[in-house]
Design brief:
Layout lengths: L1 H7 L5 H12 L5 H13 L2 H29 L1 H24 L7 H10 L4 H12 L7 H29 L4 H18 L23 H30 L6 H20 L7 H15 L1 H5 L3 H12 L3 H14 L5 H30 L1 H4 L1 H17 L5 H5 L6
Membrane topology: Multi-pass membrane protein
Keywords: Membrane, Transmembrane, Transmembrane helix
GO molecular function: transmembrane transporter activity
């Protein structure tokens, strides 16, 4: 199983941009939980905490495709440096506002600025893989699988780190660490010019939004619903651990969910698939829905850890072919924008899921909140099963990537 990944990391420059991307993306598994832990500590309300987290996620979903569009046009280095400096300043402002006891409404614009300046670094790194493997496209599927493993490793480590810092050191410590990871990783990626995809040639006409592509219109609501699954799991998991008297283990619980997905991603990327991408995507959606049943029924923390691990096994086999479909239908000159759009559409879903789950936790407890990821996965499966069958064969065959 290790051989395909060992060969992948032998690509010139790959180890460096993978390492920078790993550090810079650590925050994606930390900021949502960090906001919930900090804001709930200073306000005493999961509902307010979920709403602030949702504001950040919505702002991120609006800003990240725009910054990715600029990266396609002007180059990653030119955009990433000022963007990440603005992000560091925004997180500092948010933490100061929360700790100073300013009116609750001030947290919302501060969170919005932080989300607006947060890059979708996973899309930027995947665009680098596409450029680095432009002469070996058969290895791109393995690269996307590897990036899913990186993502899930982040979601194993990040929640544990942010929870430990926020509950054991200071309520703001986890969020401060997340902001630091973003700053260091993004700057490290920005200085790597050899693997940077070239900007769009000067004088070339600027294409319209990738939303004009029919397949993107089908995939974006599915990604949003997947985000609702993840956002609701975050808030519900923290609340469930607290109800069980072990709030400090919330990160471990959420890490088990990500560990299941990472395990599946390793297996997925090491296989040679003959089934079409769209079929694999539909199967993944069905499995994800079935995996959402268990958390609704479980009442014990350690049993919940096992259940969410098995639920997480369906995440990567859904996400990896979904990214493959996006890479196939989006023009190369807009690839970063396309990948960022669907990635940040997840942010809209995270906002819906975390806000809805926070309200259900306040009103009915965590078990009721676990109904949100189950329902979101079911709706995503319905849309995905019906919608991907309508993607034209011309779209799916217009570009060649590994199955």
């Amino acid at each position: 199983m290790a051989s395909p990944y060992r060969e992948l990391l032998g690509v010139p420059g790959a180890r460096s941009f993978v390492a920078a991307g790993f550090v810079g993306r650590m925050s994606m598994s930390m900021v949502g939980i960090g906001i919930v832990l900090l804001v709930s500590a200073v306000t005493g309300s999961y509902g307010i905490a979920g709403a602030v987290s949702a504001t950040m996620s919505l702002s991120y979903a609006a800003g990240a495709p725009l910054s990715a569009r600029f990266a396609d046009r002007y180059g990653q280095h030119a955009v990433l440096v000022p963007l990440v400096l603005a992000n560091a300043a925004s997180w500092s402002t948010f933490i100061i506002f929360a700790q100073a006891g300013l009116p609750i409404w001030t947290l919302f614009p501060a969170a919005a600025l932080a989300g607006l300046s947060l890059p979708s670094l996973g899309a930027w790194v995947r665009a680098r893989w596409t450029y680095a493997l432009r002469e070996r496209p058969a290895r791109l599927s393995t690269a996307f699988s590897f990036e899913s493993v990186v993502d899930e490793s982040i979601f194993v480590c990040g929640p544990i780190i942010v929870t430990a810092l926020s509950t054991g050191l200071h309520p703001a410590a986890g969020l401060a660490a997340a902001a630091s990871f973003t700053l260091v990783g993004c700057l490290a990626l920005a200085v790597q010019r050899r693997t940077e995809p070239p900007p769009r040639p000067r004088g070339e006409s600027v294409p319209g939004s990738v939303l004009r592509i029919p397949a993107i219109l089908i995939m974006t609501p599915v990604f949003a619903l997947l985000g609702a699954v993840f956002g609701a799991i975050d808030v519900s998991g923290v609340a469930f651990a607290q109800e069980q008297g072990h709030k400090a283990l919330a990160g471990v619980l959420l890490g088990c969910y990500a560990l299941g997905s990472g395990t599946a991603a390793l297996w997925y990327g090491a296989r040679s698939w003959s089934a079409p991408l769209d079929r694999r995507f539909r199967v993944g959606l069905v499995l994800l829905t079935l995996g959402g049943v268990g958390p609704v029924l479980v009442t014990h923390l350690y049993l919940m850890m096992a259940v969410v691990f098995f639920s997480g096994l369906a995440i990567s086999p859904t996400i990896i072919p979904a990214y493959g479909l996006i890479e196939r239908v989006v023009p190369p000159s807009q690839l970063t924008e396309g990948l960022a759009l669907v990635s940040t559409t997840v942010g809209i879903g995270v906002a819906m899921g975390s806000s809805g789950a926070g309200k259900l936790v306040d009103a009915y407890g965590s078990r009721a909140a676990f109904l949100i990821p189950l329902g979101a996965a079911a709706v995503a499966a319905v849309i995905g099963l019906a919608g991907t069958r309508k993607i034209s064969k011309r779209e799916l065959s217009s570009r060649s990537i590994a199955g």
